[in-house]
């Protein structure tokens, strides 16, 4: 502690010495003063309370002799004139309560058990006429015997509040604090005076050195007061600061040049790094797209030869039931089985159509399409109603912007795309919820997620959003792969639904993005290029317009089954049919 004091500044040392001596004297005097005040007050309180108790006791002798508690209560009520008296109780010689008084009106319990047990017990053991008192918890309790002709009739116990004592103590403490503050101020003034004459030059030098050390500012100078030893030290220190300032100016110049070179190089590296990251990201996207395209092309090549043969086989399964249904009535016993065979054939034909789309040979012709009309046709179709019957907890919400633009495409494939997306959304929802199908016009000038670049222009965006279980991040990159599905094969499709969606979007020169979080749902966004061409209205032919009037038709097909089916159907319609396998002469 002494070593720490020795390291203090001179100004602080002077101030500490003056204040320590002054504070010691003031504190000693304050303690003596407060102690005397407390002792004298307590003594005066005991004397005054004893006189008051003696007076009340004398006035209560008659009430005790004649056993009149009411008169004793009237006598005790005179204590109202003494505001510091909290409560009082008159006891008989045997310690039982004779009469009580309380300033708050709750006197029956004011003389607590401790007073009766200890204070009254001591009074009974004391000499005749001797008072017993104690100080406890801010109160003075006093027990005084009630005497008549040197005979004790009972006891008077009084409990007085010491609030006045505390008020006096507080006033004394405030006086002491004011005195200490005044003394501290006086000590500060004295120490400043001493410091100005003795330590100011040294303090000025030390303060300047501290400023130089903290701020590294060498342009400051120490003020010189006199030409003594401190003056010589000041001149030397100022010369040293001047030399350091010149050196720092040169270093700062070189540092600025170096920082400019480093900043230029850093900016070049940052630009190169950003460009490299961008190129790597674009290359990864292109590689992923190329790998997917190669996989799809390989699978498409494999699937390209299958649909033609399957269509030849299925044509008989679909066409012959149609021909037979034309020849029999609805009440015929074979009508329903033939319808079942025809429906199964159409389902198989739909799978063949998916394979055609997979092989990129499904979209054969492009025409102006109103995507809003395609959506409405699907929502009103039996397929949609059947799907809703299988998923009664799902509700489809249609949200359309006004004035949806036209696109170039195939209504068949676009309708199948909407159907696949809606069915997948419904099957992903295990709890009641909504599938929101939204159509809106938009303008693309920035890449869609998953694509390095896009063709800028107007697009029609088809969004299908569900509140289902979502798709894991590890599965997102594989959802468009053929036969990649988390569903049971044969129960929820063929595994080609999303592949067909991807192929359709690609055939329509569009873009597709998927956002999904497990437990929150999935959002598919499809972008189709808009067109300014107008849709042509094609009249729908009625069934009877296909009926022939004996006209001749030549059927050329190298497959005998196809020739027979076409010949039978055309003859059923009333045409004169000739069928050959080729254009060569027999």
TrEMBL record:
One of its GO terms (cellular component) is membrane. Pfam families: CHASE8, HATPase_c, HisKA. It is an enzyme of class 2 (transferase). The keyword Membrane applies. InterPro entries: CHASE8, HAMP_dom, HATPase_dom, His_kinase_dom, HisK_dim/P_dom, Sig_transdc_resp-reg_receiver. Residues 552-586 form the Response regulatory domain. Keywords: ATP-binding, Coiled coil, Kinase, Membrane, Nucleotide-binding, Transferase, Transmembrane, Transmembrane helix, Two-component regulatory system. Residues 305-532 form the Histidine kinase domain. This is histidine kinase. It comes from Desulfomarina profundi.
